[in-house]
Design brief:
elongated, Glutaredoxin, alpha/beta
Length: 258
């Protein structure tokens, strides 16, 4: 059983591992993580390295190197448990096609209030967040599929415009895990957001996948409604926004969230 369990886990993770290997920055990360160990252990390269070991063996770790490796491993695991013992590189910033309008602290309010018939989905992100960088291509793909005259996608960097995070109550602290945050605006007002926030100000666990965003924000219905409004033209009077059907709220959330 002790042998079968790791083998089953390895077979199960093969598809994910193949996608992982297809990205060059992950390969670079693995090489950088293993570079010092290879140099220290691989003769004849290790014979030219200095050492503080009592036996004078240059092809093995001394006490100082062991302490440094343990300290770095502890920092990596505290920052991100998924990293385990690999000192991973950050994924590169997404540079692909998208239909997304980028807001600043001075333009976000004006854009949301400009035409109240337009529905906005706005992502509050920070460039230093790994979760935001991982979600960037998914959000860009959604904008390419669903963006139209009456349904727009926007982004605002709350790591740069901290007053926007305060105004829209999005914490940028890594401990709260509120980044990224998606907020749906209809009629210039917030209708819903993901992830939701519990009583302690921490984000309720929610997966930022394309399927979850489409389902939770009811993008198909919003898209069809927005297309009808855009075809009708400017002669149709403003209608009251219709919010997506909310999902069940976890018990630990506050009354305000409910």
């Amino acid at each position: 059983m002790a042998v079968l369990a790791p083998l089953i886990a390895l077979v199960y993770s093969v598809p994910r591992l193949s996608r992982w290997l297809a990205r060059p920055y992950y390969l670079l990360s693995a090489l950088l993580s293993a570079a010092f160990v290879l140099v220290r252990k691989l003769p004849p390269v290790c014979h030219s390295l200095p050492t503080q070991r009592e036996d004078g063996n240059p092809c093995d770790f001394d006490w100082r190197e062991v302490e440094i490796l343990m300290f770095l491993s502890a920092i990596v695991m505290m920052k991100n448990r998924r990293s385990m013992f690999l000192m991973t590189c950050k994924p590169p910033l997404y540079m692909g096609p998208e239909y997304i309008k980028y807001f600043s602290d001075k333009t976000i309010d004006e854009e949301l209030e400009q035409d109240k018939r337009v529905t906005w989905i706005v992502e509050f992100f920070a460039n230093w967040s790994n979760d935001c960088q991982s979600f960037a291509p998914i959000y860009a793909d959604l904008s390419l599929k669903y963006n139209c005259t009456g349904l727009n996608f926007g982004k605002v960097d709350v790591g740069r415009y901290t007053d926007v995070s305060t105004r829209y109550k999005v914490s940028i602290s890594p401990l709260t895990k509120q980044l990224p945050t998606l907020i749906l605006f209809q009629g210039g007002k917030e209708v819903m957001r993901r992830p939701q926030i519990d009583k302690k100000g921490r984000a309720v666990s929610w997966t930022f996948s394309e399927e979850n965003v489409i389902r939770e924000f009811n993008l198909n219905e919003l898209y069809q409604r927005a297309k009808k409004l855009s075809k009708a033209g400017d002669n149709i009077p403003e209608e009251h926004p219709v919010a997506p059907v909310p999902t069940a709220v976890p018990d630990e959330e506050s009354k305000k969230d409910k």
